[in-house]
Specification:
This is NB-ARC domain-containing protein. It comes from Populus trichocarpa. By secondary structure, the chain is mainly β. Helices cover 0% and strands 38% of the residues. A hairpin with a 5-residue loop joins β8 and β9.
Length: 125
């Protein structure tokens, strides 16, 4: 599904207590068609907020790369196992194959391309 969203610029997911992931592999999908890495080439802003059950950004299919991402916000996602990290060229990636909760997923974090990570452990807890 993500490969069909090349023009997506802003993705905001918030206030869901039952969502486990944003993207995931359809049970009927053939393993042959599964990509190792998905790219959302024009995504500028990604926000995940108040998602008490979310475990992964993308389940079972791939890692994501956001070459034009300028802002990332992760607030109140205590079970999130996806690791968001910058690549050597300054892009943001989402790596879903993490076996335990990332140490930074339970706090509120924001990232922007120019100032890096900002953490706020008190504002929404």
């Amino acid at each position: 599904m993500a490969s069909g969203l090349p023009e997506l610029r802003i993705l905001t997911v918030k206030k869901s207590s039952q969502l486990w992931g944003v993207f995931g592999q359809d049970d009927r999908a053939s393993p042959v068609n599964v990509e190792k890495e998905m790219v959302l080439p024009n995504l500028n802003e990604l926000s995940l907020e108040q998602l008490s059950s979310i475990v992964y950004f993308s389940f079972g299919c791939c890692d994501f790369l956001f070459p034009r991402l300028e802002k990332l916000k992760v607030h109140q996602c205590p079970k999130l196992t996806t690791k968001f990290a910058t690549t050597p060229d300054g892009s943001m990636s989402a790596q879903s194959e993490v076996s335990e909760v990332a140490e930074d997923s339970s706090i509120n974090r924001e990232w922007n391309r120019y100032n890096g990570w900002k953490e706020d452990g008190d504002s929404c807890l």
